[in-house]
Amino acid sequence: MKKKNYSIILCGGLFLASCMSNNDKCLQKLFDEVGVKKSQIHNATHLVTILGNGCKGCIHKALSEIHNSTDTIYIIACKSKKTFNLITNKNIDDYSNVYLDTKSILVELDMAKNTPRVYLLNNGKYVSHSFYGNESPSKEANTTITFNTNEIDLGKISRTEKAKIKFTIWNTGKNIVRISHIDLSCECLNIENEITEINPGDSTCLNIIFHPDDIGKFQREILLYGNFDSSPKLLTITGECF
């Protein structure tokens, strides 16, 4: 793959809930529906999927990095070429590797959420799932953590109100938990308290403030990086804003 200026973090274990049993079948359906050329499928090493209704900052970054390449396919949920031009200031006809998903296939297959996704391919087959991020997972895992829950559903929430969310984290290992970084998928999320260390056997709370940024169903993600197994850990916040 040619040099690119975005960073991605491999997280194959987080792949599609609806396509868990057959990743390749989902990829093929997506390629067929949006009309990706077979020659491009076999030559591509990466697929980038982007929704237009998620984290605005994340999406703008991904869209700004679109480039003509034979090893990367971009599929963007967008109603028309005109809409694509309005949100990107780019002409889709200038790119041979950019395709529009006008039928919401990405949503149907759960292949893109509020943050852009990157899929590693080999001869058109699924290898691993990736996402845009800020740093690599820790290579010095020497303890374990658990949560009271990995997902909180806020139900229906007014766009004019803010929600306070609390995740409890337990250090279930024998060494001190050191949290090196917390990545938020949206500017609508803010961390209320700083967490850096948790002693063995102790617990602490991660307090998040959510400011609704759009109307409709949403899913926001929080990634915790540190010296624990399976770093980063994924926490999700879901609901519907009215």
Automatic annotation (TrEMBL):
It comes from the Bacteria. Transmembrane segments: none annotated. InterPro entries: DUF1573, Ig-like_fold. Pfam families: DUF1573. PROSITE patterns: PROKAR_LIPOPROTEIN. This is DUF1573 domain-containing protein.
